[in-house]
Amino acid sequence: MSPVMRTRRDGSTRPARHRAVQPIPVLWLLLVWLALWGAVTPLLVLGGVLVAVLVCLAFPLPPIDLGSSVRPLPLLGVVARFHLDVVRASIEVAGVVLRRRPVRNAVVAVDLETTSDFLMTLVASMLSLIPGSVVVEARRSTHTLYLHVIDVPDAEAAEEFRRMALALEQRLLRALPPRPTDRERP
Amino acid sequence: MVSWTQLADLAAAVCILLGALLALIAAIGVVRLPDLLTRMHAATKPQVLGTVLVMTGVALRLRDPGVVGMLALIVLLQMATSVVSSHMVGRASFRAGQVRHDLLVVDELSDGPSHEEPRGAP
């Protein structure tokens, strides 16, 4: 993500400074801390918050701009479908490993519809966990993902994969519809 | 009379065995498959499901709520990190030209119009 720029009084620009300690990362780190200890006591919560704040200060990150609203029911559908697909993809790849005939692959370009960095990252990570594909290259300027797809016998199967990847993006877009940004607003 | 603990133990045994089998298949795949990019598939997908199954088996056997949080954490971090590592290794190998082009049916990254992204592009 390109840094947000602030303009100084004399007209020069500098990258915006973000607050290092943000509430949501602290909450996540606290949950991880409690999961590691496997218990919830007041002392553990206090220690967890302390450690989380120290981690945020030591490794400051810019806040993630989700840029979309969340619709819980379609999101639940996406997550359920995702788990089914993980199982299917694992069995498929296991089949490719165990059979005797040589495997043919393809590198397929998928032009995403979304312009949001967050959604592009989400689609990329879901695609590399599910249907026999690994992201080889991502181009942010054109929102293109290049995926290495295993077990593609011909060009028709590559087209089929592209349709499947775009359908996954559409499902995700329905679950996390993007909020109109200032640029797109009339 | 079969008690529910015996049933849970049976389910745990099945889960752990299946998970171990998938991990074995992943290892065979890393040895058998022809090039690095294909091997990354074997190293990420069956292995992730194998880890999930082994963790489910462990949770069913231990039946301790304190452990479940840590097991869920293992699965989540496994999913998050295997994606990033497979992408980084795949990208590096493609850029270094370590790709068996004879195995590719379609290659839209090499065949497409060359597109120079400025170095260090955000």
TrEMBL record, chain A:
It holds the Pfam family MNHE. Keywords: Cell membrane, Membrane, Transmembrane, Transmembrane helix. The keyword Membrane applies. It is a multi-pass membrane protein. Its main location: membrane. It comes from the Bacteria. The keyword Transmembrane helix applies. This is Na+/H+ antiporter subunit E. It comes from Nocardioides pini.
